[in-house]
Amino acid sequence: MKWCLIGNPRSQQVLQLIREVRQVLIKRKQAIVIEQRLAAALGLRGTPLEKIDADVYITVGGDGTILLTLDHTDKPVLAINAGGVGFLSEVEPKYATVAIDRILRTDYRVEERTKLACYLDNKRLWDAANEVTVQTAKIAKLIEFRVEINGEAVDTLRGDGIIVATATGSTGYSLSVGGPILHPSVDGVVVSPIAPFRISARPIVVPYSSTIHITLLGRDRGGQEAKVVIDGQRGKAMRAGQVVAIKPCERRARFIRFEGGFYDRVRTKLIR
């Protein structure tokens, strides 16, 4: 079995944990490939993430590291938490060896999650495991935009922007602006305005099969400054008149899971 190791090369905690995980895999005579920047920080030879093809991806860090990994692979991800809340993570560092041994015994399950495909003026951008956000690019400046779902006008809003989140992303940025939590098995998408300039603008849940169009309108002289951001990792500037289309994605995010379900994760990670 081939394992890929990914983590933040600037974190000493992550580097130490990666060393320990690597030694465990070496003792079990496993093939190992390390992401290039992480490998350089360890003084080892690495491979660019986009060129890696492994059976299992081990991420050590927080949710940001997981999302970065999911952008490059559909293979199962074992997430070891070395960040803050680590909602998407499966195990704490002290259980890393146990988790690896269980995977080698095939004593685990793979949980599949939906992703979103994002287009700007019909040009495909990056896929989103968490959310697509259209947001103001200028501090303290509102943007105005129109929202359509399956060709039907929903609303025209002014505010800081709007979040279109998967069930996975419903526990992230969307939750922080008042969006509901979706169970991963719910085939839905949460559409949540960010600080709308109207109290009646509320989050809504739509079918995952929906096609959502967000059009940036031009209300101010010289247009508006906005950007579309994918999973908080990558962004693209938008100008007035441009349209973001968000559709179901053919790819899936896959997580390695052991005991404990979604509600246990919510209880231990978010309600404490």
Report on this structure:
This protein is an alpha+beta fold and 272 residues long. It folds into two domains: 2-107, Rossmann fold, CATH 3.40.50; 114-250, Probable inorganic polyphosphate/atp-NAD kinase, domain 2 (Tumour Suppressor Smad4). It is 19% helix and 38% strand. The chain is built from six helices and 16 strands. The chain has helices spanning 12-27, 36-42, 63-70, 96-104, 173-176, 262-269; strands spanning 2-7, 31-34, 56-61, 77-81, 109-120, 123-124, 131-136, 143-149, 152-159, 161-165, 188-194, 204-207, 212-216, 226-230, 234-238, 243-257. A six-stranded antiparallel β-sheet has the order 6-5-16-13-8-9, with no helix packed on it. A six-stranded antiparallel β-sheet has the order 12-11-10-7-14-15, with no helix packed on it. Strands 2-1-3-4 form a four-stranded parallel β-sheet, sandwiched between helices. It is elongated. The protein starts with a strand and ends with a helix. The model has no long low-confidence stretch (mean pLDDT 92).
Termini separation comes to 38 Å
Which CATH-level-2 architecture of the largest domain? Answer: Sandwich
The name CATH uses for the topology of the largest domain is: Tumour Suppressor Smad4
**Could you tell me the mean pLDDT?**
92
Structural class by SSE content: alpha+beta
Number of separate structural domains: 2
Spatial strand arrangement across the major sheet: 6-5-16-13-8-9
Supply Rg.
20 Å
Unreliable segments of 5+ consecutive residues: none
Q: Write out the CATH superfamily name of the largest domain.
A: Probable inorganic polyphosphate/atp-NAD kinase, domain 2
Shape: elongated
The percent range for helix content is: 10-25%
What is the multimeric organization of the chains shown? single chain
Query: Could you tell me the strand content as a percent range?
Result: 35-45%
Please trace the helix and strand order, writing H or E for each element.
EHEHEHEHEEEEEEHEEEEEEH
Tally of alpha and pi helices? 6
For the record, the CATH class of the largest domain is: Mainly Beta
